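Table S2 (text version). Query chain:
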Amino acid sequence: MRPRVERSVGRQFFGLDPQTYDAVRPGHAEEVYDILRERCEVQPGSTVLEVCPGTGQATRRLLDLGADPLVAIEPDPALAEFLRGSLGDRVEVRESALEDVELEPNWYDLTAAASSFHWVEEDVGLQALQDALRPGGWIALWWTLFGDEARPDPFRLAVDPLFEDVPHGPSGPFEGRPSFARDAELRLAALVRAGFEDIEFKEMSWEQTWTTEGIRGLYSTFAPLSALEPDRREELLDSVARIADNEFGGRVEKPLVTSLYTARKPT
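Corresponding structure-token output:
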């Protein structure tokens, strides 16, 4: 069984190169933001808390929906600085892990996390977000996955043998179960334990295309690769780029899935 990167270790890697992360990560399915507006009632003046926003890809979309104020809880100092530099005073950035931060009780209309909540201790984090929401407020947790078991993914088949000895991150599947984001049974049970109601799970399928440089950059943002020794990491990334060039003509299309969980705090 492949080892795993511990949460406390892995979430330190995303600030190593924020510019590349922001450029090569594809964001999330557009339908997510339609659901936040229509189901979760995010509108101009909504008070929003975002957990581990990274470089702010979802943060910018939340601002577009009208989030004001928007508070971002970001544990990585480099990413917190990137957010302050790119978004200025539109966002209040609190440099802390969710498990350690003190939040306003019963205040937020929406608490959200985009491709990040697997880095949080789930029950502790959900309880913190439940406490921070106003009665009737919403939680939205979503992930975009770089592959879909139900659709062909030739590039993944080509590169997977390179990573047989590379650790999984906490988003990876446990033996006999789906990946963290697609394990609806466990995610829904955790939301129930935290006291949420009106819980829904939805998946959205889409695609994205990368150049050789882009796909190399994408793989460079994966925490398990960042945990490797630099020489080993560069060797693997160079191999990914060679496969993209030699076998895919420098154009890699991958199937993506965005998994979205929404729920409401009882009134």
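Notes on Table S2: The beta strands are 48-51, 70-73, 92-94, 108-114, 133-145, 197-211, 251-264. The radius of gyration is 18 Å.
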